[in-house]
From TrEMBL:
<dbReference type="Pfam" id="PF03417">
    <property type="entry name" value="AAT"/>
</dbReference>
<dbReference type="InterPro" id="IPR047801">
    <property type="entry name" value="Peptidase_C45"/>
</dbReference>
<dbReference type="InterPro" id="IPR047794">
    <property type="entry name" value="C45_proenzyme-like"/>
</dbReference>
<feature type="region of interest" description="Disordered">
    <location>
        <begin position="1"/>
        <end position="23"/>
    </location>
</feature>
<feature type="compositionally biased region" description="Basic and acidic residues">
    <location>
        <begin position="13"/>
        <end position="23"/>
    </location>
</feature>
<protein>
    <submittedName>
        <fullName>Peptidase C45</fullName>
    </submittedName>
</protein>
<feature type="domain" description="Peptidase C45 hydrolase">
    <location>
        <begin position="118"/>
        <end position="353"/>
    </location>
</feature>
<dbReference type="InterPro" id="IPR005079">
    <property type="entry name" value="Peptidase_C45_hydrolase"/>
</dbReference>
Length: 360
């Protein structure tokens, strides 16, 4: 199914075990992204490493332990630090500052919270390169100084989708735009959220243009006794903006929704109207139908929504478009549901219409 690693100790020790035990997955990531960077940006792996180094100062300023963890991964996997840095800056290298022909990306993220339901639940399909199924790792990180983190990631990448012992969780949607900065890479911004003890702390780490490229961070937080909520922050080098959520539900896909952020960035998603927007509207329709029918909304509801195949291949449950160039064929690689109120994760590797959710 998925290799599960329990990592503990200092940042360097956590990274070293990640690299050692997950070496095959790290190597798979390196192979995938070497092809992907060439396909999207027409650059060599050497060029990608150089682009990644532009972010090192911002990472060191934010949290030196992140650098130490990436150094540990490189040591454990027997690769260069710059290789691991390039993986963690992969969104900035591949998707931001895009100058070529525009293209589409995937992922559908959903959240429900009071008053729609008693619990705060977030979840998503992660749509990306099918080969990255072989790079997936489930990490249980027991840090000396931060909340315990349970996260699904790609080998070598230290921040992605998950939740922590303080009840803070995050889902992620890529946004393809024409600008970026040398700030904190998106995936390290995700880890910064997961290293937080509260929603306020999480937001403080991603606001004010700290993040190098545009993305959607759907962040949930549950403090117990029904006190939970989720916000959808579109982050960018020009600041953040909250999108929706006033009625107890949130949906985000892969286009910019914020008018204020669109003043600074151009949305480069070529299939925004016939893929991303339709997935967003379909997910909202499914949620609203459940509410109208007064159905109980829970983890089972998410399993049905995330398995939806309406408008395939560009459905919530995403299938590869065989007519697209190979490096642009995206599909659902995994599906995850996190009940933050119960500190529970359900995970399905592959398409949720074909696989089974397992409680983690």
């Amino acid at each position: 199914m998925i290799k599960s690693l329990t990592l503990a100790g200092s940042a360097k020790e956590i990274g070293r075990e990640h690299g050692h035990q997950g070496k095959e997955e790290v190597i798979q990531s390196l192979k995938t992204y070497e092809k992907l960077f060439h396909g999207y940006q027409h650059i060599s792996w050497k060029d990608a490493r150089e682009r990644a180094l532009a972010h090192l100062q911002a990472i060191e300023k934010h949290d030196l332990q992140m650098v130490e963890e990436m150094e540990g991964i490189a040591e454990g996997a027997g690769v260069d630090f710059e290789d691991i840095l390039a993986l963690n800056a992969r969104s900035e290298i591949a998707l931001a500052g895009y100058k070529g022909s525009a293209f589409s990306d995937g992922c559908t993220a959903i959240a429900v919270m009071p008053p729609v339901t008693d619990d705060t639940i977030i979840g998503q399909n992660w749509d990306w390169k099918g080969t990255q199924k072989n790079s997936l790792l489930l990490l249980d990180i027991q840090s000396d100084t931060k909340p315990a983190v349970k996260m699904v990631t790609e080998g070598g990448i230290i921040g992605k989708i998950g939740f922590n012992s303080a009840g803070v969780g995050v889902c992620f949607n890529a946004l393809i735009t024409d600008k970026k900065s040398e700030g904190l890479p998106i995936h390290l911004g995700l880890r910064a959220v997961l290293n937080s003890y509260s929603l306020t702390e999480a937001i403080s780490k991603i606001k004010d243009g700290k993040i190098a490229a545009a993305a959607s961070f759907l962040i949930g937080s549950d403090e117990g006794n029904g006190n939970g909520m989720a916000v959808n922050a579109e982050v960018s080098p020009f600041g953040i903006d909250y999108i929706g959520g006033d009625d107890g539900k949130l949906v985000h896909t892969n286009h910019i929704c914020s008018d204020s952020i669109k003043q600074h960035l151009q949305d480069m998603n070529e299939f925004k109207y016939d893929d991303s927007m339709l997935r967003k509207r379909r997910a909202e329709q499914l949620i609203n139908t459940a509410i109208a029918k007064q159905q109980s909304i829970n983890e089972g509801s998410f399993q049905e929504w995330l398995a939806d195949e309406f408008n395939a291949p560009n459905s919530i449950n995403h299938f590869p478009n065989e007519l697209a160039p190979e490096h642009r064929r995206m599909e659902t690689v995994f599906s995850v549901i996190m009940n933050l109120s119960k500190r529970k994760m359900l995970l399905c590797i592959g398409k949720p219409s074909e696989g089974k959710f397992v409680e983690i």
